[in-house]
């Protein structure tokens, strides 16, 4: 049977002549099973944290700094405490445990004590009988500031006075690979800037903290890593982890670790102080100010190539703006430096990367971190080399693409499938969209829309290509492990796993795995809390691989328990029995029964872990086997640009992707489309702007997300199913790599349309304006 990926991302198969046609399965892997939470979301019963309620509920509000950099002279809470209805006010002096926290480096205070280091930093929190009272009381707290000059240029951070006791440098990686004295016949140089993209989750952060009789506290929130949040909270509250419980409410959508600990920790402190449940629903402005954003990045590149366009050497300097605190900036820098050359074979590479603290908003994990920024730069460099050599942009990429067995600049061998050339060829060969019709009724399709464009004759079309790559799971020695339990009672199976469903589809995948292994159609996913074993954060496709692997192993253990009595009765091994579509059959057809009959009166369960092979930190020269696996994508963008006003309309996005194995065709397509849409936002509209460290317009009118009119139909022309042998099911996560690749493709298309360098994301209108005279 020959599998063909169609434009919808599904796989169709044509049976050989004489092969009986089997009815399609309605459950298990490879089926487009609907999302597990679709019914709850459509009926309004999905448990969002902002909807939670408890008897005796109090409301919280957080006072945040209006300054990006200031010394706190005094904090006077007297007026707030004396307001009717106010139950508690907490500041840095009321933190009983660790006063600072952080996911990688504990450098971020729960409440600012002596210094304010970014606009919106928490100063104090209030609990009151009514949300308006809480907000008024927070505003009544008198804080005297000595305003200081903010450091907002990351290049100035090297020479500025230390903004933090740990200094301004978060991490420095000087990667060295090959001979530094090698020089190419053709050299291309470029300077690139990437803006501050916000995750902009559908629902802003919210939470409910409930005190426990044992002196502990339960926190109900849309956490994406509940055990890490529990450990942070327990350290802050001065409690043993067993006395703090995090219960995961419905996550409306997340791009990784999106939640703001600066909201959850004050909630718990207020609940412990008052003895009452306390709730906080952050405003959109507070959400923008509190959670982490994509790292703004400055990149300088020099590419060396021979006369035929083969890469000889890449030199680069990468500077990440970490904002006020370290967070996951060290991890982001490692990804940026490691992937600075892209999915190309580069014999010699010298990449120097820094992440520095500034007084800008905090940066952290956002999908495709590090890889997205460098992709925009190295693809810009490939276009420059193509122009200098007079080579087609696709051809120069084809002459340099990576394949399985090649080396990364970190010295690590690419052992996973790397069908980069196949992906690029697929998007190159796909038909191009038709040109705009010469019809007034089609004017709304022009850049800027109806009456928004200037002269239609000023519209130019451009086609651009980009190749991107990301790493999967954690890196540099991260202990990637997840635990899952599968219980079967009669005809119903239950999966217990602390892997949070953030929109990536894990809850649906877990159901499909159990259906596939056990042949049980009704599969439930248990609610998640920290009483369960940890599963780790919902980022970098971890749960598809690690948590999905744990569920599969547990289900297979239950399968063995189910089949052993039958195998013993018929004198055969369990390997000679198969389960499909709810039926158990033997290899010779002698045994045939249903799973439901075999399970009658039984209760089976098993717990299993999945831990991928270990990685290692990069050494002092940036060398090491730091990554578990890699995923690749090719994108072709077609844009129309009004070269007089600089308006850009994305006409078409064509995608080919390395997916390992398709587990849910409809869900996979949705994840790719979502990634492309997020990439278009990064390319054209999304930039959280600041003025001397102060966030401008922290709302969804000032921060422009792409709408349905900004995102064209996304054509998925090829999904390469070359299974990764070390991954459970052979599948690769698919969400991040389209985010990484799409902005670079859009920028390349605008370059092709205008002839302008386009070295900044998002692309500003003035960068696409061309003098027609």
UniProtKB/TrEMBL annotation:
One MF term in the entry's GO annotations: oxidoreductase activity
InterPro entries named among the record's database cross-references: Ald_Oxase/Xan_DH_a/b, Ald_Oxase/Xan_DH_a/b_sf, Ald_Oxase/xanthine_DH-like, AldOxase/xan_DH_MoCoBD1, AldOxase/xan_DH_MoCoBD2, AldOxase/xan_DH_Mopterin-bd_sf
Top-rank taxon, per record: Bacteria
Region (Disordered): 1-30
Domain Aldehyde oxidase/xanthine dehydrogenase a/b hammerhead: 43-149
Listed Gene3D superfamilies: Aldehyde oxidase/xanthine dehydrogenase, a/b hammerhead, Aldehyde oxidase/xanthine dehydrogenase, molybdopterin binding domain
Compositionally biased tracts (Gly residues): 1-10
Biased composition (Low complexity): 11-20
Protein's recorded name: Xanthine dehydrogenase D subunit
Organism in which the protein naturally occurs: Streptomyces melanosporofaciens
């Amino acid at each position: 049977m020959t599998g063909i990926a169609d434009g919808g991302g599904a796989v169709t198969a044509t049976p050989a002549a004489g092969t009986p046609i089997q009815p399609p399965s309605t459950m298990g892997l490879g089926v487009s099973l609907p999302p597990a939470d679709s019914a709850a979301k459509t009926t309004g019963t999905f448990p969002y944290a902002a909807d939670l309620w408890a008897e005796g509920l109090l409301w919280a509000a957080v006072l945040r700094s209006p300054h990006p950099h200031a010394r706190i002279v005094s904090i006077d809470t007297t007026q707030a405490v004396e307001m009717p209805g106010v139950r508690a006010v907490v500041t840095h002096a009321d933190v009983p445990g660790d006063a600072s926290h952080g996911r990688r480096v504990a450098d971020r205070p729960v409440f600012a004590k002596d210094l304010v280091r970014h606009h919106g930093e928490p100063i104090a929190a209030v609990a009151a009988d009514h949300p308006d009272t809480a907000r008024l009381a927070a505003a009544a707290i008198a804080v005297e500031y000595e305003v200081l000059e903010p450091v907002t240029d990351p290049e100035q951070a090297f020479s500025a006075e230390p903004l933090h006791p740990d200094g301004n440098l978060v991490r420095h990686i000087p990667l060295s690979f090959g001979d530094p004295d090698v020089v190419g016949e053709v050299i291309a140089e470029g300077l690139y800037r990437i803006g501050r993209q916000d995750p902009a989750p559908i629902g802003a952060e919210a939470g409910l903290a409930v005190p426990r009789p044992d002196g502990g506290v339960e926190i109900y929130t849309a956490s994406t890593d509940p055990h890490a949040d529990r450990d942070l909270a327990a350290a802050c509250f001065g409690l043993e982890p067993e006395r703090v419980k995090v219960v995961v409410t419905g996550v409306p959508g997340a791009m990784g670790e999106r939640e703001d600990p600066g909201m959850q920790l004050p909630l718990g402190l207020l609940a412990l102080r008052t003895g009452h449940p306390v709730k906080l629903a952050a405003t959109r402005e507070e959400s923008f100010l509190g959670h982490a954003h994509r790292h703004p990045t400055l990149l300088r590149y020099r590419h060396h190539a021979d006369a035929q366009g083969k890469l000889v050497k890449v030199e680069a300097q990468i500077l990440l703006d970490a904002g006020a605190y370290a967070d996951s900036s060290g991890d982001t820098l490692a990804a940026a430096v490691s992937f600075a050359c892209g999915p190309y074979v580069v014999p010699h590479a010298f990449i120097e990367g820094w992440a520095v603290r500034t007084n800008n908003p905090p940066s952290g994990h956002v999908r495709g971190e590090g890889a997205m920024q460098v992709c925009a730069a190295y693809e810009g460099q490939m276009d420059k080399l193509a122009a200098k050599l007079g080579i087609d942009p696709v051809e120069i990429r084809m002459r340099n693409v990576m394949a399985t067995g090649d080396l990364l600049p970190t010295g690590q061998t690419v052992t996973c499938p790397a069908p980069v050339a196949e992906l690029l060829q697929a998007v190159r060969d796909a038909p191009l969209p038709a040109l705009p019709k010469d019809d007034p009724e089609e004017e709304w399709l022009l850049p800027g829309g109806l009456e928004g464009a200037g002269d239609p004759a000023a519209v130019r079309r451009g086609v651009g290509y980009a190749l991107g790559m990301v790493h999967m799971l954690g890196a540099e020695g991260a202990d990637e492990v997840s635990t899952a339990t599968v219980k079967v009672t009669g005809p119903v199976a239950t999966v217990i796993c602390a892997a949070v469903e953030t929109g990536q589809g894990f809850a649906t995948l877990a159901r499909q795995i159990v259906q596939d292994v056990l042949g049980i159609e009704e599969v439930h996913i248990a609610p998640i809390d920290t009483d369960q074993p940890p599963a780790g954060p919902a980022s970098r496709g971890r749960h598809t691989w690690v948590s999905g692997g744990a569920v599969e192993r547990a289900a297979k253990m239950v399968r063995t328990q189910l089949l052993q009595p039958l195998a013993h009765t018929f004198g055969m091994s369990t390997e000679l029995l198969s389960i499909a579509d709810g039926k158990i059959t033997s290899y010779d057809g002698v045994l045939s029964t249903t799973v439901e009959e075999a399970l009658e009166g039984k209760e089976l369960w098993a717990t299993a872990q999945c831990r991928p092979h270990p990685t290692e930190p990069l050494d002092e020269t940036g060398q090491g086997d730091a990554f578990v696996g890699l995923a690749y994508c090719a994108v072709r963008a077609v844009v129309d640009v009004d070269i007089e006003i600089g308006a850009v309309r994305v006409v078409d996005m064509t995608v080919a992707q390395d997916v390992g194995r398709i587990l849910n065709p409809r869900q996979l397509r949705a994840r790719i489309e979502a990634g492309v849409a997020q990439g278009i936002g990064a390319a054209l509209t999304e930039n959280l702007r600041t003025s001397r460290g102060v966030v401008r317009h922290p709302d969804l009118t000032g921060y422009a997300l792409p709408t349905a009119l900004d995102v064209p139909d996304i054509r998925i022309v090829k999904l390469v199913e070359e299974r990764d042998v070390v991954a459970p099911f052979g599948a690769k996560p698919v969400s991040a790599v389209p985010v990484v690749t799409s902005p670079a493709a859009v920028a390349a298309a605008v370059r092709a349309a205008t002839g302008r360098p386009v070295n900044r994301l998002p692309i500003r209108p003035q960068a696409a304006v061309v003098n027609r005279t």
